[in-house]
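Section 3.1: Structural characterization of target chains.
Under the original work plan, the team committed to producing a structural model for every single-chain target entering the pipeline before any wet-lab resources were allocated. The record below documents one such target. The sequence was received from the expression subgroup and is listed exactly as submitted; it comprises 216 residues.
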Amino acid sequence: MTTEGPTERTIIHRIAEHASYDSQTVGEVLDAGLIAHVGIIHDGSPVVIPMVYARVGDTLYLHGSVASRLMRALRSGIPACVTVTVVDGIVLARSAFNMTMNYRSVVIHGTARLIQDAADRAVVFRAVLDHLVPNHYDTVRPPSESELAQTMLIGIPLTEASVKIRSGPPLEEPEDLGLPIWAGEIPLTLVALDPIPDPDLEPTIPVPASVDNYSY
């Protein structure tokens, strides 16, 4: 996977030492996230919608209803901005001003392309589900022709992407270090709990390995 490096739209000026344009880092953060916030300008107003996604190589894929206002707008070729953020902790400083978060965040600028080839669509359908629950696609009924016809798949290249990462303890003012105030980090992580079966599920149906072994 390759990126263009910093561009006029992706270059990070604020706390630039936390910035990266490395394609491997972009991919790692996207693979770790679960929700992409997709932003466009529609009828003169900003619209931002959370969506599931998948990364395959150097492309971010989104899927949604063919009736979706967002998907139709993306299909038309308007510019889009996509963000994915993973929150790793709350950073507590001795001063209110220096409180922050530890995080990994990707920002992507680009123009979407419609995925029409049947083989490519099959790959994207599988990738989106397997991004949510790895290796789960083979345990479910594949989409029917009617369901495929109701679904739009688009791809946004990762050539114009940036990453911003913060980790570690708070950065304090030297004069605050002697204050009798607790400082440090509250680590955060998303944890999968025990799966809850559908109330209509036949009790003899076993939990698939993709669910039983799921961890985040």
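The radius of gyration is 21 Å.
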